[in-house]
Amino acid sequence: MHPTLARVVVRRGPFPRVLTGCVLALTAASGRPALAADWYTGAETAGAQDSWIVSVDTSTTVSSQGSQFAGATATAAPAGTLLTSGLRLRADATIGSYRAGTGLGQQAEVAAMVGYGWVWPEAVLSAFVGLNVRRNEMPGLEASLRNAGGLKAALDLYARPTPGTMVHATGTYSSTFNAYYGRLRGGVAVMGGFLGPEVALLGDDYYRQWRIGAHWSGFQVGALQFGVAAGYLHDQTRKGGLYTTVDMRAGF
């Protein structure tokens, strides 16, 4: 979802990210000013928040089309904390499967990137670039084309225009199979989280899909933040269907 949008999901052919980046945010119900930097810190006390140097975002998406993806992203601030502007390091991993014609396509990816995060009172912008290795297996794809490596870039924006609203946009692109992923969400504070619409586009040289739905994200369960989303999707192979996404975020 955010910030380092790394996040999960991410995102990279037909898989979830996040943001990408999993997309979780705090609500005004936390009892203190809800700023964009909260995305990095969760609903902890100020002292605990200041010590956060690593965030871990996971995301899982399943659909009625027979596709399922899981991803994880770890983002670190090696020269400070995630509450301050500075250098960022990020590692992504994704695995999943999807229906491709009459067969089953499978996909896996790992990536390592370096970037920078700009932190303001109402917004966080992060940009990354690095290397990835990707494996695509699908009917008719030659063995020599299944494994490839290349460059990957990611951009993530999380903003809190007011204490009761949020906007999150994340996107990734990889030269490996021309894989891309983008997710845009907005919301208002409702019942301890943020409720609102979301849209997403994802695909690569062999697969394309778009989604439109609703999310409720940023609600706290113990030391973790969670988010859920559901809606309608359309892909080039099996056409229309339904999807569900579950995001989770932790920090250290």
From TrEMBL:
Residues making up the signal peptide according to the UniProt record: 1-36
Alphabetical UniProt keywords: Signal
Cross-referenced InterPro entries: CBP_BcsS (IPR031485)
Annotated protein name in UniProt: Cellulose biosynthesis protein BcsS
Source organism: Methylobacterium aquaticum
